[in-house]
Each structure stands twice: as C-alpha cells, then as structure tokens.
C-alpha cells in the first residue's frame, strides 16, 4: 500500500496504475461503513485508491471541523487489512493552496435539507469531490447511502460535468440495534448512544406504513416525527423529509423512488439517516 501526500504523486500513481481504478473518498476516522466501500471497490477494480482529507470547505464556521475525529494510524491499519493500493493524505495547503478560488456550485439540490441547515456545505463537498475525481480520474467512485443527499448530488455532479467516473452507491452499514455507523457516533455519551437507534425505528415506521399501502407523504412525515418525539434525549429535529430520490423535491403522494430522510440533534451531536422506498 502506497501513501501519497502530494497532488503530483497521487496523479502520477493513478495514471500509471492497473485499470480499472476505484476511488473511495473519505474524511478518515474510518469505520466498518468505509470498510464496506473499500471491499466493494476491491471486488470491482484492479486498483483501489482511498483519499483521507478532512475538507474544511464543507464545514461551517460554527461546525465541528476542529473536533472532527482523526486517527490516521487506525485508518491505515484498516486500509492495509482491506488491501487498498493507494492512500492519498494531502494537507489543507496541498488541496487549497494560496490563490485557490474556483468553486463548484451544486445548484438547487445544495440548498435543500442538509444544505438548508448547513449553508455552503455542499459547495465544499462538490468542490472537493470534483478536485479528487479530476486528480485521480477513477473509473468508479464509491459513496455510502448513509449520506443520501450527498450521493444524489455527487451523481448529478458527475453526470452534469462529464467527470467520466461512475458513481457507485453502497448501502448503509448499521450497528446490530439499527444505528447507522458514522464517524460522529463517538461523540454520543452512553445514554445518547442507547437512545440513538430511535432514528432508524422512526424510518422503519415510514417503511412499515408504506408496505401496508400508505401513500400520503405528509402522514409518513408526521408518523416519523411522532416516533422521534417519543425519545426525550432528542433535543431537536432538523427535518423529516419524504422526497423524490432523484430531485429531493418534497412529495404529497409517495410514488417512484423515494428518499425518507431525517436529521436530529442529541446534545451536540447531529445524526442523519435515511431509507429508500421503491
Ligand atoms: O462523505 C464524506 O466523507 C465527505 O463528504 C467526502 C465525500 C469525502 C467529501 O469530503
């Protein structure tokens, strides 16, 4: 496994590696969810590259950039185990050198849901993903369904800007109690951790009703919210959304491929999760 720190070295390694090349972009603090992405990439490519970069451009001024978990040693151990070939670990100065001032505007999608709560977040995501894909030119790039809006947005980005990379979406990995695995779960105290699976239970409530034939989207939103509101450790609900998976437009009637997504706060920790109804 080669570890590369500069754009030049990474670009060269990707140019010269056996194809197909799969890229797994990450912000480090790797867990089983990332393990799944790397394993899928390993199965489908001759070369697997992983980027580890905590992208400051996708954090707001009040957000947890400085607290974001970092564990390069642990990350490299996991990546060796999963047999990654190339690991890109650029510094902030390498990715955003003095004079850097070109940004990717991800359009209307970027202003919805997470984007409404975290202004500028998706501009940062779209910009760094474009940079990483342009630098490495992978055949496939792998993203987790856990960040449901991100995968929709990145798929549109790759399509709209002819990035020449297929975006592969990998299912969410969950703890046995249903909590979606996330780097930020380490911030939950033990009571919050016990309460957190309510998020998945709430999403399952929507799925259960939908399976019984319910198609009123507002009723599903109300029911999801009702389950979340039963948990006293949830301090606030940022949103409950029942939207078309492709456009993220809120629906009146559930039809087609639908993304049910929620964001809640347990103390200082924000949890997001989603399911697809189709
Ligand atoms: O999902 C993430 O970890 C990040 O948003 C990504 C895609 C690596 C961009 O920084």
Keywords:
alpha/beta; binds pantoate; globular; three-stranded antiparallel β-sheet; six-stranded parallel β-sheet; single chain; 278 residues
Describe this structure in words.
The chain is of the alpha/beta class and 278 residues long. Helices cover 37% and strands 20% of the residues. The chain is built from ten helices and nine strands. It has helices at residues 7-16, 32-44, 72-81, 92-95, 114-117, 121-136, 148-160, 190-195, 198-211, 217-229, and strands at residues 2-4, 21-26, 47-52, 86-88, 140-144, 166-170, 236-244, 258-266, 269-277. Strands 1-4-3-2-5-6 form a six-stranded parallel sheet, sandwiched between helices. Strand 5, helix 7 and strand 6 form a beta-alpha-beta unit. Helix 9 packs antiparallel against helix 10. The longest helix is centred in the middle third of the chain and has 16 residues, at 121-136. It is globular, with a radius of gyration of 19 Å. 38% of the residues are buried. The structure holds pantoate. Pantoate is lined by residues 25-27, 55, 58, 125, 128-129, 147, 150. Pantoate binds at residues 25-27, 55, 58, 125, 128-129, 147, 150.
